[in-house]
Structures are given as structure tokens and as C-alpha cells.
Amino acid sequence: MRLAFQWIMSFLYVVQNAVVMAAMGIVFFPWALVSPKGASTACNAYATWAIWSARWMVGIRSEIRGEVPTEAVLVPAKHQSFLDIMMIYKAVPQPRFIMKYELLFTPIIGIYAWRLGCVPVRRGKRGAAIKSMLADVESGRVPPGQLVIYPQGTRVRAGEYTPYKVGPYVLYKETGQAAVPVATNAGLFWPKGTMLRKPGLAVVEFLDRIEPGEDQKAFMSQLEEVIETRSNALMREAGFEPDAVD
């Protein structure tokens, strides 16, 4: 009975969330079209609503831990869920996301991504993608802020492992900025590939920064170790054992 109720509330949450996203996207669209401020205000309003309504509709509480960066830094983050995107967006003052190129052609969303200063990357073209990403960052088209990149290149189910890609190191080296890794357990409560939302405490944790100057091997090793170790610890804290997943 409890699971059936959770499914019903999850369905209602997903529906109302989609309606609110569409409504806000349309209402703010003229402002977003002419000003980045309009885009950021719309996205902030939507993220606030989605996180708040998740708490009372499906029981997902949210918590930010660690020292949130306010200066221009690279933010390599564990990505398990759309929820961790919204939590990071709400936490940092000037978020800029590395995102899939295809999203630029999504109605309304593409305009918002462009106006926010997100960096589109084509999948499957590693060398060209990195060059394009660097060109966007170095050209000044992307305003200074917290540049969020997902080291595994995609959303990863809680407890599963996907190899880390070299993109974060390239940006770390070329920009000369510190990197602030981010761990999360959000995928336990807002899972990939299902409408079911599960109650619990979703955490996004900003970890100790990696200062500029590390070589590729040291940087990538440290990045993966701290993100995976801390994300696994957060999942265990929520009662999930990542080592039990095949």
C-alpha cells in the first residue's frame, strides 16, 4: 500500500513538475531572450519550486554540505540525477554547465541554456569536443563563474561505475583554475529511468579543492578517488550499499 501511494505521488509530482517547467519557460521566455538575467531568474524559480515541492509531495529532502565556491572555479561533479543539477544550480552563485550539444535545439530549453552561458559539447567526437569546449571557455562567450562538468560524461545510476573522462583535466590545466569536486547520493531518491521518487535525504557535498598545478595522472586519480569515495559514503549513510551493485 505504501509503495502504491508513493507511485501515485511520484506520478503527480512528475506531471505537475513538467507543467510548472513549461509554464515558467513560456512566461519568462521574452525576458530570457533579451537578457541572461531573465534566464537565470526563470531557472532559479523553477529549481526552487522543484526542490520544495519534492519535499512535501514525495518526501525528498535536500541538503548542501561543504564550502560552496563563490569565485571562478571548475566544479567536476558526480551526476546521478536531474536533482543534483538543480541542487548545484541553486547552491553556487554563477553556475555554467558543460552540456550535451543536442540540448541547444530543444524548444525553449535551448535558449535558456545559451543565455545562461552553458557550454555545448558534441558526444562521440572527443578531440573536437574538447577543442570546442576550450574555445567557448577561452573566447569569453562563457561568463566567469562556476563551470560545472560531469567527469563521467553522463548521468550514472547510484552504485554503478563509469570511467572518468579527461575533459575536467583539460579545463583545469588550460584555465589555471582550482577544481572543487562534488559528491552526491541524489540518484537514490530521484533515480534514472523511472518515474518513482523515493523519500529520503538527498545530499550534494562540495569537497576540498584541488589547487592548480597537478599533472594529469595525479589530478585524475585524486578527482576520481575523492568523488567516488565520498559519494559511496553518502549512499551508505542513506542505507544503500554501493558495493552490492553488479
From TrEMBL:
A single Gene Ontology biological process assigned to it is:
phosphatidic acid biosynthetic process
Q: Which domain of life is it from?
A: Bacteria
Q: Where are the transmembrane segments?
A: 12-33
Q: Does the keyword Phosphoprotein apply?
A: no
Classification via InterPro entries: Plipid/glycerol_acylTrfase
Its pathway, per UniProt, is: Lipid metabolism
Ordered alphabetically, the record's keywords are: Acyltransferase, Membrane, Transferase, Transmembrane, Transmembrane helix
Any idea which GO molecular function terms this record carries?
Answer: 1-acylglycerol-3-phosphate O-acyltransferase activity
Q: Where is the Phospholipid/glycerol acyltransferase domain?
A: 73-187
Protein name as it appears in the record: 1-acyl-sn-glycerol-3-phosphate acyltransferase
